Amino acid sequence: MLRPGDLGLVPEPASTQVPGGSVLLADGAGIGTDPALRPAARWWRRVTEEAFGLDLVPSATDRSSVVFALARGLPAGGYGIDVRPTGLVRVEAADLAGAHSAAQTLRQLAGPDAYRRSGTGPLALPVVRMVDHPRFEWRGVLLDVARHFLPKHDVLRFIDLAAAHRLNVLQLHLTDDQGWRVQIHRYPELTRTGAWRHESTVGTWRTGSKDGRPHGGFYTQDDLREIVGYARDRGVTVVPEIDVPGHVEAAVAAYPELGTRKDRSAVRTTWGISQDVLDPSEGSLAFFRHVLDEVLDVFDAPWIGLGGDEVPPTLWRESPRIVERAKALGLLGDDGRPDVAQLHGWFVARLAEHVSDAGRRAVVWDEAMSPMLPRDVIVTSWRGYAQGAAALDAGYDVVMAPEQAVYLDHRAGEHPAEPIPVGFLRTVEDVYAFEPLPAQLVAPSDAPRSAPLVELVETQVSTSGGATNGRGRLLGTQAQVWTEHLDSARRIDYATFPRLAAFAEVAWSPRADRTQGSAASKEFLGRLERRHLPRLDAYGVEYRPLAGPHPWQTRPGVQGYPRDLAAETAVGGWAGLGGWRDDGGAENLPVGGPAPETPEGDG
Ligand code: ACM
């Protein structure tokens, strides 16, 4: 009898029995499927036929060697795999999502060669019985295609790799100060002007180093429909993010009337947090409602990202017209005077209502929370854990994505040749130790409720939601791949892998003690190195080797901006500080450094 870990699966399934032995799947073997699971069975058949050079023949389920069947009694997204010594391979799935996950697990069971695009068998599968289901329903990864445009085929490849780790949400960060990447027919300047910048900053903005090389690109709506369909075929939902009312310089360069200053500018060429936020006018609202109408038409996700992060109100304070608008809208501070900072939450709330009216739910970063935010909005907690706990307590569903833990653009090691080291040190072990809702936040002291937060949340996830006691649900967790310093698919591979594999296990597998040095952490590292990195090698992923970068992965002379997690936690606590703080107008400070003209959170 082998031990379950000997299969080397990542993420580790909930329950596995491995009696030993293996079976061969022959050329011409039959594959039968319940019609509801056909997309998953078809995907598995195609990748398997390619990798092992054989043909699997669609046939009736009672005459097939491989069967995909619907089964009752499994939790949502769950599946079972039974590889019998007789050679029968039976997949049972609760639903299509479960079948997609089962297909990915079957691919892993076939060994690293299953990740090649050509080969000549044989295809051997271990005899196994497993029952598996996800811990969280939202297992996300954000890909920033705004700071650096990523060609479509690399986005498709990224989706393949996310799906290979049983992640099921790709948040596509499509717009930012440095580029607008989604075609909007009504507003062609968004891509004609907003998709291009004349040069880029190299490394941290603090050195002022620019490359003098134009950069840009965008996806047509046909491209995006293809991306959505490709992801759907792999069990991944693409959540588009249109970031407002900050991070909008590219849109303002295209349509200056959207901006607070109203003067013509160019698409931003530096990183960091811009003060050039939207004019929170009726005109801006109408513009972005029209943008969202096209986005809603292209993307079929139940969730639409509206951003809402990092919105310095500095220019609003300086504008008597905008102060007057805050007053007219009744946005007043404790002192009874107009409070322009509240226009941030007000603006996002209005667009969230537009998304709701279309039958979808908005997703916002935690700073966009306000008493005006509709309760159906999903809050992504990025500045720390406390914002997510507060959102749960206020009744919002939450995705935990704290920058202290799961920002994969942050440096993965302390190797002297680490390329452009920015952010906090987050090793593979650090990411593996991440717990989306740590014990410190179990029961907020000022909110006496009958059930502790974690217990309630876990119950809700396993029973697919329902009673709330006024609290929101922890939908899951999301890793972030911001690309200020990742200017190619190769750099994205380096930052993302293998840490995304560690993250995937946190998001999928049952809760466990994964702290550094724990038995689980040591076991995972061994499994990763011996069994999973060979899969990534076979696929052609240029991940960061555990010992540090290959010489060709270094970026000599390009300066990063490392941050110190212990020092920042000492100041910000579990809440974190985020990339800036509003001190009432004197200056907006980046964390960990002096106030520059253009503060920057990301390096
Ligand atoms: C963020 O990192 N500004 C969401």
UniProtKB/TrEMBL annotation:
Residues 576-603 are annotated as: Disordered. Its EC number is 3.2.1.52. Keywords: Glycosidase, Hydrolase. Transmembrane segments: none annotated. Residues 136-510 form the Glycoside hydrolase family 20 catalytic domain. It is an enzyme of class 3 (hydrolase). It catalyses: Hydrolysis of terminal non-reducing N-acetyl-D-hexosamine residues in N-acetyl-beta-D-hexosaminides. InterPro entries: Beta_hexosaminidase_sua/sub, GH, Glyco_hydro_20_cat, Hex-like_dom2, HEX_bac_N. It holds the Pfam family Glyco_hydro_20. The keyword Hydrolase applies. Residues 8-115 form the Beta-hexosaminidase bacterial type N-terminal domain. Belongs to the glycosyl hydrolase 20 family. PANTHER family: BETA-HEXOSAMINIDASE (PTHR22600), BETA-N-ACETYLHEXOSAMINIDASE (PTHR22600:SF57). This is beta-N-acetylhexosaminidase.
